[in-house]
Write a structure and sequence with these properties.
Helix content is 50%, strand content 19%. The chain is built from 6 helices and 5 strands. The longest helix is centred in the middle third of the chain and has 20 residues.
Length: 156
């Protein structure tokens, strides 16, 4: 089975901007995070873990938002403890707009999403399709199953 067009772009395109890893803090697993780190290193990019809260769809509970920020920072800290260069950013707004804007601000070389079997998978795929149309950099969606295939094809 061959790579999709976005996977081929991710494998061949290199740059010096950021790799934005958009997380929902649910679909992440160690393999997905490690793969995102490897992609960033391979591309000479900084890894930014990005979580977006859409105020229209989320309750405005500051304690819940603080919990998300804490989890995001803990994730970045755990990667840094493994000698990985990662930082965390919690942003607010419509996800497509916020991610597009952040990608432009950081001159992102890639936007990556790990998709699992969560109930949000359909919404994530629609977001990814829209970002692929509007962003200047490639957008990559991967699952645990696709990581092995991509690692072998790009030398990670």
């Amino acid at each position: 089975m061959g790579l999709s067009e976005s996977e081929e772009l991710a494998a061949s395109d290199s740059g010096t901007g950021d790799l934005l890893y958009v997380t929902d803090l649910v679909s992440d697993n160690q393999d997905a995070l490690e793969f995102a780190c490897e992609l960033a290193e391979k591309r000479g990019a900084h890894l930014e873990l990005l979580y977006v809260i859409d105020p229209e769809k989320a309750s405005s509970r500051p304690d819940g938002q603080m919990g998300i920020q804490y989890s995001l920072e803990a994730l970045a800290r755990s990667l840094r403890n493994l000698k990985r260069n990662a930082r965390a950013r919690l942003l607010f707004g419509h996800p497509e707009d916020v991610i597009s804007k952040r990608a432009a601000e950081t001159r992102a070389t890639l936007i990556a999403f790990s998709v699992g079997d969560s109930s949000r998978k359909r919404v994530q795929k629609a977001l990814i399709r829209n970002l692929a149309k509007t962003c200047a950099c490639p957008v990559l969606m991967f699952s645990a199953l696709s990581i092995m295939k991509m690692r072998s094809s790009i030398g990670c």
